[in-house]
Amino acid sequence: QVQLVESGGGSVQAGGSLRLSCVSSGRTFSTSNMGWFRQAPGKEREFVGRIVLSTANTIYADSVKGRFTISRDNAKRTVYLQMNSLKPEDTAVYSCASSRTYSGSSPSGYGYWGQGTQVTVSS
Q: Helix (H, G, I), strand (E, B), or coil: what is residue 76?
């Protein structure tokens, strides 16, 4: 069983930055894949990006490309989501998710999820 705990959410003005963290309890952390997703009120869960923890390979949704960066610290079993140039439309609950085998953008491919952290961007 893998437990994921996110932190770092909060309120920020447009143009600001936040860094989210996701700490994993999984013993196979360094050979897993970690995705970041977000869900705004009344909207479906949206893929933000993911990282292959063994290689640090990343992919991003077009909506955040160039503004968000995912990184990891395998020794700390932690994945980070650095969010710059935030926009009001980035407001959502952000969740990390883990999979041993899946590295795509579909939420259904990830078996373990954190509880989420709220990010609010005001104009």
A: helix
pLDDT tens column, 4-55: 999 999 999 999 999 999 999 988 888 899 999 999 999 999 999 999 999 9
Backbone phi, psi, residue 53, to 5°: -70, -25
Query: Edge-to-edge, what's the strand order for the sheet holding 4-7?
Result: 4-7, 18-24, 78-83, 68-73
CA atoms of 80 and 6, how far apart (whole Å) = 9
Q: What is the pLDDT of residue 119?
A: 98
For the record, the structure tokens of 94 come out as 């952000």
H-type helices in 4-123, by residue range?
Answer: none
- In this prediction, residue 64 has a pLDDT band, given cuts at 50, 70 and 90, of very high
First to last CA, the chain: 40
Q: Which has the closest alpha carbon to 34: 54, 50, 57?
A: 50
Q: Which residue has the tokens 């700390």?
A: 76
